[in-house]
């Protein structure tokens, strides 16, 4: 069995030894350097720009401004293109913009012989602005008379959704009547999340040049085929005129599931005669000008019967979209859907969602795609309901979790397998929940401990909301090994390794005999939309399995030509064997024969597409034990255990590593990470890794990853999503642990020390401030 | 990308002073952990630098003078201070404080001289040096002068150091450390790679029976625009039984400090930390001195 083995990553040696090539390692030197001029206002217009001094600076090749760019608006999210106009992404961005929508808007670019000259030239550009009031919050942007950030949306509401599930009890006409029915426990809550960023190690760098009349771009992206499409759209040229190459990348987490500066860079090279232009962005620019996770506020209501059955809920979510649509309403739509799905209501559910333009840097996709936000709301809500009405928090959840066979009433996504109850049980035992809850029951004193938990559900890929398609190609080598070509991308998550294992499994050869072509080149890589939505092991896995089985059949049928008498041919230990287990010919000899046979020469290859029309739910939970230093507002995470049902694990060691990384992100989301803005200017105050408080290794407890392996009938190898899920339940688990330690419910993220001191003071735990 | 106009590599302290006299706009760079960040941010773009980085022979090293004073060369890195046998034996609290700056890489590059010459209130060595009443020895064209650390800080980012002067020695007089034990608490948003939201350094000299806090010295970083002592708290608790001193020191300190509200932390939050951490720092200092608290 190749699937299920904890083999080392196929790229491990290259990455730890520094041999692996990333975008900037491939950039030719010397190269022209591009730098971007960012606005010093957050809302308004560029009225005029004086570039004469910048243009005159020796070493400056070209200065281009928002007055020079093509008059084309294009969409940027890494979604599969929709051929139906109504489902296409919002096209609201230009390469450089006269309309200033965020502090730091891209308003001009300098191309120079070196970076310092480019930077000095930026400082010589004089800009005259017309300025409007800054609106950082949806309430400001939705207020009467607010200036429209995009003229297409005069009220700054990018989208509004209103979804009501069918009412399953004819005594009620709508959810609101259930929520008001006095026979049920009635609960109301408000929860809100903050804006955070991915903080991948490698900033989004690219370089672009022209050759043979085409534009070539090497870039740090999760989605090379989509980058190619968007460059074509942004420049108004045929997509075939563009070649995008994606080398190894230093993380993405969704930020690079967005077309960032590649279109601008592609255009810049066309403006300097096709010379190679490198566009690096600093960490500060990455914070200010690339994507982040949406702040979303939730107003929720629930009706729960005396036995703890969830009867009905409503949820109104308002998502702060910042200055550009990016992934737009898809994220809050996912959030309200996730809120609803984990605990299906017995009578009905009503959800409303708004996506609102503001002057913040535009959020986009980030690990979990709206679910970390809604999971904070729903898991705080469950804890608060349990506490308020006297239910055991775990029993309340077990009573209401999504059952096997659940079918979503809107999108039809079906629960084909679930190990959630087992996950909860496993986590409960591993952390010693029952003993600790008892032990920590009646604490006093300034330092107290608590345990908390949270559950989640997460779909696998984007079907049927969007297209799910993936292609694979396998090519035989003379020594019996194969090359595996995919459009799916390795972004640090270990994709190449599990793809190789799945190919080996399908063909019947050892993983060591699969050579994966790691870099995607849109000229040659099969089509796949890329790394996002925790989709690749599932969606790409299906393509690999399909093509692998076809490839295997081709090997066997060639063998059958060579051994016409043999019966029940199969592949075993690098040999073709017959039904009696006798070794007929090694794969190496078979391959060499196929290449060079004077009777029948053939290069054995297989290629195909799998159009995936299935989806399934992954599940899991997080248990956290914390120590709270009340007078200092400090939370120390003592232990953390995530338990996941991601179906069958392709590579258990890599799966555990994925979980560790997600837990780490969750800790930052829970306790310290928060993009802070100056309300007057709209400027991001902490857009660097000193002031933006990502936890360090010193801030982590030992992280434990456990699994419950279900065998999902819809997965190519029984597997389901795992990429994003580990980050999801951590923040509410920590929040609930702090609640259990102190009795203080904190309803907004992060649980930062100052906020905790304020909340503990309000709660009477700190007496004297 | 570092936009550096010019850099002069000084060959001696005298040479560095000459170079500074020759270029009124030049900046001194030692470990570079502050200056390079400012250059990268664009604040010092195109600057000219006089590097004293190579002057370790004259400016580095930590020694015990014949009179018992501890003398620290300003070019000693945080790590040099932390691992100095002299510091470990005589003033371990200072080595503990320098071990909390940044991360391992920064501590191997950043210098204690730079930490006090940049005039920043959050500097990890500064509150402990303030509690120790360190003496700064400064050399310029006219020779050397001594500045007690209480006179050193002149405002945010400003110290009593002329353009053509260099800090050449930090002296901790014997009577300022002998008999004291100390504890430094760096309160920050994370446990490494951070700047202090509040720094508290407390020294205590206990009575022979370990029951009384005979002399207490309390200093803060980030409780005001510059590192500062808390004379009211010191006066209020010196001479008290140690338990009582621990209980009272926090409240007593509140009158001395003047933290401000910034986006990093509110004034109220910092006051809460001042009150809470003063007592905790004294408790640990006393514990290290043998008190049963």
Tell me, rounded to a whole number, the average pLDDT of chain A. Answer: 98
- Strand-residue proportion of chain A: 15-25%
CATH homologous superfamily placement of the largest domain in chain A: Aldehyde oxidase/xanthine dehydrogenase, molybdopterin binding domain
Amino-to-carboxy terminus distance of chain A: 63 Å
- Give the class-level CATH name of the largest domain in chain B: Alpha Beta
Sheet/helix structural class of chain B? alpha+beta
Task: Sum up the overall morphology of chain B in one term.
Answer: globular
Helix content of chain B: 25-40%
Strands of chain B, count: 14
Give the ordered list of helices and strands of chain B. EHEHEHEEHHHHHHEEHEEEHEEEEHHH
Brief summary:
With 769 residues, chain A is of the alpha+beta class. Chain A is built from 20 helices and 27 strands.
Would you give an account of this structure?
The complex is a heterodimer of chains A (769) and B (293). With 769 residues, chain A is an alpha+beta fold. Chain A has 4 domains: 198 residues, Aldehyde oxidase/xanthine dehydrogenase, a/b hammerhead (Aldehyde Oxidoreductase, domain 3), CATH 3.90.1170.50; 161 residues, 2-Layer Sandwich (Aldehyde Oxidoreductase, domain 4); 218 residues, Aldehyde Oxidoreductase, domain 4 (2-Layer Sandwich); 143 residues, Aldehyde oxidase/xanthine dehydrogenase, molybdopterin binding domain (Aldehyde Oxidoreductase, domain 4). Chain A has 20 helices and 27 strands. In chain A, strands 3-5-1-12-9-10-11-20 form an 8-stranded mixed beta sheet, sandwiched between helices. Chain A has a 5-stranded mixed beta sheet with strand order 7-15-14-13-8. In chain A, strands 16-25-26-27 form a 4-stranded mixed beta sheet, with helices on both faces. In chain A, strand 13 and strand 14 form a beta hairpin. In chain A, helix 11 packs parallel to helix 19 and helix 18 packs across helix 19. With 293 residues, chain B is α+β, with helices and mostly antiparallel strands. In chain B, a hairpin with a 2-residue loop joins strand 8 and strand 9. Chain B contains 14 helices and 14 strands. Helix content of chain B is 37%, strand content 25%. In chain B, helix 12 runs antiparallel to helix 13 and helix 13 runs antiparallel to helix 14. In chain B, strands 4-5-10-6-7 form a 5-stranded antiparallel beta sheet. Chain B has 3 domains: 48 residues, Uridine Diphospho-n-acetylenolpyruvylglucosamine Reductase, domain 2 (2-Layer Sandwich), CATH 3.30.43; 117 residues, Uridine Diphospho-n-acetylenolpyruvylglucosamine Reductase, domain 3 (2-Layer Sandwich); 111 residues, 2-Layer Sandwich (Enolase-like, domain 1). At the A-B interface, helix 4 and helix 20 of A face helix 14 of B.
